[in-house]
Write a structure and sequence with these properties.
The chain is of the alpha+beta class. The chain has helices spanning 17-30, 60-63, 69-80; strands at residues 4-11, 35-43, 48-52, 55-59. The chain starts with a strand and ends in a 13-residue tail after the last helix.
Length: 93
């Protein structure tokens, strides 16, 4: 069984807890066999980052926006389960 850790670092000043919690729920549902822990990490200063096994895969500061859940799932999949089919969240041909 795979053991991967996801961390979502979000800004409490910006009130992004609900967004982070929703994304966490989506990832835990999609990758229930692959993820062993998912941590929501409160922060400040407009931070919204997603780390997979300590590797940064998304930064709102760098990207200038939040990820769509579809693209976030694809990025996580590419990091932890490249052969996993995401069904309707799969990339378009």
């Amino acid at each position: 069984m795979a053991s991967h850790h996801i961390e979502i670092h979000y800004c409490t000043q910006c009130r992004w807890l609900l967004r982070a919690a929703w994304m966490a729920q989506e990832l835990l549902t999609t990758f229930e066999q692959e993820i062993t822990t998912l941590t929501l990490k409160p922060g400040a200063g407009g931070i919204f980052e997603v780390h997979v096994d300590s590797k940064l895969i998304w930064s709102r500061t760098q990207q200038g926006r939040f990820p769509d859940i579809k693209e976030l799932k694809q990025m996580v999949r590419d990091s932890i389960a490249p052969d996993k089919n995401l069904g309707h969240s799969e990339r378009s041909a």
